[in-house]
Amino acid sequence: MSARSADLTEKWYEYVYRDRAESVRRFVDAYPEERALSVSCERFGHDYRFVRPLLSDPDEALRAGKAALRRFLSNDTDRDLGDVYLRVTDLPAESEVALGDLRAEHLNRLHSTRGVVVDASEIRPKVVRAAFRCAKCEAVTRYATQPHREFQSHAKCPRCRSVGYLSFAPPASEYVDAQEVSLRDLDGSETATALLEHDLTEVATTGEEVRLVAIPRARRTDGSTVADAWLESVSMECLTPADR
Ligand SMILES: [Zn+2]
Q: How many angstroms separate the alpha carbon of residue 157 from the centre of ligand 1?
């Protein structure tokens, strides 16, 4: 763990978990049926040594948040909690970007944006904790969280150490609901695709306006250097007329 990661983990612990011991324990008791923990950015106040890295490198900051949760539980669980969703809301105003203004410079950073849901795909299962079966051991010997859209394979069996005998075991794996929605910019000019997982698939229906906190992502396809882009959702709230 880098010095910055250790520092971020400490801040998560101090600002989020330490003072909310009971509600965090309730959350962990309901896990894995409930996997999403809501965290308002206001808890971090004006600590820019936390908020800046959260906005510029949310992958590292959210990993630190999960590490701090494990520490809070004193490893009092056999799960690695890598499949928990930390639903960060109330980002500072500087993170705000209009959907139509999203560009390459915003990729892999944390942003807040608003839009109207104009289309929604059917809800499909997404694997969040993949089980791997070893053909030599004839058993499931490995579990790995799958936080991203691309499936991460594992080749080495942790029990017998052989390489190349592990294969994905669908029935022993865990899934959440997932859905793609199209969001239209408030001025109606642009649309963007957002990937929603778990509880976020139930937040809004077509025609509703939402505030989305997300990490814009890109994926290269078919040997092209020009990538497909989408928004990986961190949190989403439905806006009532009073919020607008
Ligand atoms: Zn094995």
A: 5
Q: Do both 99 and 209 map to the same domain? A: yes
Taking a 5 Å cut-off on Cβ, the residues next to ion ligand 1 are 134, 136-137, 157, 159-160
CB of 176 closer than 8 Å to CB of 154: no
pTM above 0.85, yes or no: yes
Range of the structural domain that residue 99 is part of:
94-123+176-243
Could you tell me the maximum CA-CA distance found in the chain, to the nearest angstrom? Answer: 60
In this structure, how many other beta carbons lie within 10 angstroms of the beta carbon of residue 95?
17
Half-sphere exposure (Cβ direction) of 223: Cα atoms closer than 13 Å: 0
Rounded to an integer, what distance in angstroms lies between the CA atom of residue 82 and that of residue 146? Answer: 8
Q: What is the pLDDT of residues 42-55, one digit of tens each?
A: 888 878 889 999 99
